[in-house]
Amino acid sequence: MKKENLMQYVLIVLLAFIAVIGLINLFKTSSSMRTAKNELRKANQKVDSSMALIKDQGIIIDSIKTSNIKLLDDLNIMEKGYDQLRPAEKQALFFLNKEESILDIGAGTGRLSNYLQKKGWIVTALDKTDIACRIMRKKGIKRVIHRDLFHYTPRKKFDTAFFIRNYSIFGREKKNIMVLLDYLKNKIIKKSGKLIFVLEEPESGTTHILKRRFVFKNEVSSWLATIFPSCLDMIRLSEKSGWFVVDYKKDFENRYFLVLKNQ
Questions:
Q1: Which residues, in sequence order, are CB contacts of 227 under 8 Å at separation 6+?
Q2: Predicted confidence (pLDDT) per residue in 155-171, tens digit
Q3: Fewer Cβ neighbours under 10 Å: the N or C end of the chain?
Q4: Calpha distance 129→147 (Å, rounded)
């Protein structure tokens, strides 16, 4: 083989080798891009799934664009089936008897009511929001009342009422909590009946005003400022309203339950 032909052959082989290496790198890059796109798609699906949960259930959150503790907490609850109870809520159940009639005040989409009903309790879910009541009925909750608490007078008073993190009814002043306690004492709960609060303890340990807003589907409400009472203040206000404090306890999630007796 002549020297010129040999050089041409070597050059062709070298170019072919470079072309093969380029194709391999291109394949690897394409594969990496596909993997990255799949990971991104999965991440987006997870976000979309989380947002869908928010839209379907409706959650009170402090900011739409901020992943705050309250939002993450509610997402965690829903990802576990949305019928799971938090530690403070579970502890409060020890004060219930199976034969008791229970009112779930501000039931929302019925997380507590659904749980209690499945466990055999007779529970009535009360909420003033039409969409929340429709969701609860769709879930199969048997006793759903679409009414504002202060416009509701039951034909027969309840043995126990649950009040879980329903801050909007408090308004901006402590005197509103007193009004609530008096109404529940005289109109809703039997003599010797129980009222159980499950609330969050302010990080400062003192009562203050908290801003929140409601998100449902594509609708966002205006900001709502409500009082955020500490456990100590709730005890003081309850005793002042004539309730007997049966028990109270804080959990590791900085929530507390407060059990009161109508005396």
A1: 167, 170, 171, 172, 173, 174, 176, 177, 207, 208, 209, 210
A2: 999 999 999 988 878 88
A3: N
A4: 8
